[in-house]
Specification:
Layout (H helix, E strand, L loop, with lengths): L11 E5 L10 H14 L3 E4 L15 H13 L5 E4 L15 H6 L4 E4 L4 H11 L3 E3 L13 H11 L4 E3 L3 E3 L12 E4 L3 E6 L2 E5 L1 E12 H7 L7 H7 L5 E6 L5 H13 L6 E7 L7 E2 L2 E2 L5 H7 L3 E5 L10 E3 L2 E7 L2 E7 L2
Parallel strand pairs: 1-2, 1-3, 3-4, 4-5, 11-12, 12-13, 13-16
Antiparallel strand pairs: 5-17, 6-19, 7-8, 9-10, 9-16, 11-18, 14-15, 18-19
Length: about 350
């Protein structure tokens, strides 16, 4: 696994918009403030041409222009890392216009984003053997003041932090104010199960070790079976390490999550799984025809006889722990605390 050099003091942060840009509010105001805050910290800024664009469908610009921007800014030497402007809907359409062969041959560079950016964070690992950060997008850095999760993300890029943990409270509903901090009103309520024979038993403490891989399930199942799906080769390369799949969902309801878990399992993606880390889905608390978000996941996990932690600080209901896709991780949960230590090897 290739690990990029860390962002230096007064280094240059590049910004790209392979998914949505920051053309409309509240994202424009938040992004503008993010640039001010990062500049005040001494960083230089390198903005791609699509950061404020809104010509695309579900993305900032045409697939061709988004793919061109992403390739160019990843390969150029004027920036030390890339942060995506935002998530979106159709980043998958840009992939055929991204030069992954050139990226694979180039010096590795940190890329950070989440949600639709799974299309890059996941493929950097599985196609290019390069670590990436599943973490906040650029506009998030515009909040006043920063939540510890935002500071953690920057420190991961800087190499100042390789261990992250749960934050205690989470946001159910945010404010419309573009610069408002997270409105964390809900107490963290982690849930965990471990294998017990052919069943799963609920537990207040669990641990797991393996190589981190995953992202947003909505995007992962879209990639599955395409020419960009080289997961089988990736799994075989690192099978001795085993894998911890970190997963969360955006648009999927509880049945969509269950179907996605089944589909990934049937494709062989969960071969060599050592455990699962599941974030709060956006459909949090939903129940449909007797199925809830836990039973959407547990049947698949049960068949693999590995531990699972659910309702983690991961994904679309903030705050989210920044996770280095491709890194070796040790995850420990005790009662209402979760700690993830990542090794870059």
């Amino acid at each position: 696994m290739r690990y990029p050099e860390f962002l230096k003091e007064k280094g240059t942060i590049g910004f790209v918009a392979p998914s949505f840009g920051c053309e409309i509010e509240p994202y424009r105001t938040a992004f503008d403030n993010a640039l001010k805050k990062l500049s005040a910290l001494g960083f230089r800024l390198d903005l791609g041409p699509n950061c404020y664009a809104g010509e695309g469908v579900g993305i900032s610009n045409t697939p061709e222009k988004c793919g061109e921007e992403l390739t160019k800014y990843y390969l150029k030497e004027d920036n030390e890392c890339l942060i995506s402007c935002g998530g979106g809907e159709l980043m998958c359409e840009i992939l055929e216009h991204v030069d992954f062969e050139a990226i694979k041959k180039a010096a590795p560079k940190w890329y950070m984003g989440y949600s639709d950016n799974t299309n890059m964070t996941f493929l950097l690992a599985t196609l290019c053997d390069t670590a990436a950060v599943y973490g906040p997008c650029a506009a998030t850095f515009g909040m006043e003041p920063w939540h510890p999760a935002v500071s953690d993300a920057l420190e991961v890029l800087q190499g100042k932090k390789q261990a992250v943990g749960s934050y205690g409270m989470w946001e159910k509903e945010g404010l419309e104010d573009a610069l408002a901090p997270y409105q964390c009103t809900e107490p963290l309520a982690l849930k965990a199960w471990r294998p017990a024979g052919n069943e799963m038993e609920k537990t207040g403490g669990v641990s797991m070790k393996g190589r981190l891989i995953g992202g947003c399930m909505d995007c992962l199942v879209t990639l599955l079976g395409t020419k960009f799906d080289k997961v089988a080769d990736f799994l075989e390369k690192y099978k001795e390490d085993g894998f911890i799949w970190f997963l969360e969902a955006c648009d999927l309801n509880v049945f969509g999550i269950r179907r996605a878990m089944w589909q990934m399992e049937q494709a062989g993606w969960f071969r060599y799984a050592k455990g699962f880390l599941i974030g709060r889905p956006l459909c949090n608390g939903q129940e449909m025809i007797g199925l809830d978000q836990y039973e959407a996941v547990l049947p698949t996990v049960r068949r693999h006889k590995v531990p699972v932690i659910m309702d983690a600080d991961l994904g679309h209901l903030p705050p989210m722990m920044p996770l280095v896709t491709g890194s070796m991780a040790e995850i420990k949960m005790e009662k209402e605390k979760l700690e993830i230590t990542m090794e870059y090897k």
